[in-house]
Amino acid sequence: AKYATDNKMAYQPPPSALQEFYKKYKIKETGKKWNFHRGKRTSQEEIDTLASAVARNPYVEILDLGENKIGDAKTAILAAALQKNNSLVTISLVGNNVSDDGAKAIGAALQKNTTILTLNLNKNEIGDIGVKAIALALEKNNTLQSIDLAGNNIGSDGGKAISIALEKNSALEKLYLGRNKVGDVGGALIGAALEKNKKLQIIDISRNDIGDDGASAIATALKENHCLQRLDLSYNNLGTQGGEAFGITLAGNNSLAAIVLGKNKIGDDGAKAFATAIKQNTALRIINLFSNKIGDDGGRAICDALPHNNTLETIDLERNLLDERTRAMLKENANASLSLRL
Q1: 17 pLDDT more than 80
Q2: pLDDT band at 15 (very low <50, low <70, confident <90, very high)
Q3: DSSP designation for 42
Q4: How many C-beta neighbours within 10 Å does residue 282 have?
Q5: Where are the alpha helices (DSSP H) in the chain?
Q6: Which of 197, 202, 150, 196 is nearest to 173 (CA)?
Q7: pLDDT of residue 9 exceeding 70
C-alpha cells in the first residue's frame, strides 16, 4: 500500500494542542509507533486529542491502545479518525470493552480505510450485530490481511456473516475467532465458505462449541481449499466422526501444514484415520491431537504410519490413554527429526 508518508510535502504542522499531546506522551511527531497500552481508563479529552492526531498525522503506522477501557462512544470517535488516516497499518484495541456499537463504527471505518493491514479486537464484547458490520466491510475491503476477533460474544449468526465475507473477500490471510460461540451451525457455514475462499492461510476457531457436523464441513472444504496452511479447532466437541473426516481429507490434501485438534474426543477410530493420512500426506508439519481419548489401538496405528512419513516435524499425543508399551513403540518408530510429545 502507498502511505501518506510518501508525500510529506502535503503534511501541515499540528496545532499547539497536538504539539502538547506529542510532548505529554513522549511521542515523536514523525514516529511510526504510538504505544498507549497501559491498562488504564482513557479520558474523553485524551481520546479527542488522540483522534485528532490520528486523523492528521501521516507518519504513524502502528497504534496500540490495548487495555484502556475505551468503550463504544470513544471507539466511535477514534473510528471516525481512521476514515481520514492513510498511514496506519496496525491497530490494537485489545480489551477495551468494545461492544456492538463500537464494532459498527469500526466496520464503517473499514469501508473507507485502505491502509490498515492488521486489526486486533481480541477480548472485547462484540456480538453478532457488531460482527455483521465488520463482516459487511470485509466483503468490500481488499486491504486488511489479519483480524483478531477472539474472546468476544460472536454466535452462529455472526459466524454466518463471517462466512459470507470469506466467500467474497480476496485479501484476508489470518482470521482468529477463538473463544466465541459460533457452534456447529456457524462452523459448518464457515466450512462452506472455505471451499470458495482462495486467500485465507490461518484460521483459529478454537473454543467455539463446534461438533462433528461443523468439523466435517470444514474437513470437506479442505478437499477444495489449497491455500489454508494452519487450522486450529482445539477445545471443541469433535468426536470420532469429525476426526475421521479430517483424517480422510488430509490423506489427499497437500497444502495444510498444521492442524490443531487438541482437547477433543476423536478416539481410536479418529486416530486411525489420521494414521492413514500420515502415510499419504506430504504437506503436514504439525499434528496436535493432545487429550483426545486416543487409546492403544489408535496410538499403534499412528505408530505404524510414522516410518512412512518423512515430512512431519511435530506430533503431539500428550494426555491420551496410551500405555507404556505403546509409548515405547511410538518413540522407536519416530525418526530422529520428529518431535514426538507423549
Answers
A1: no
A2: low
A3: P
A4: 9
A5: 16-24, 44-56, 71-82, 100-112, 128-140, 156-168, 183-196, 212-221, 240-250, 267-280, 296-305, 324-333
A6: 202
A7: no
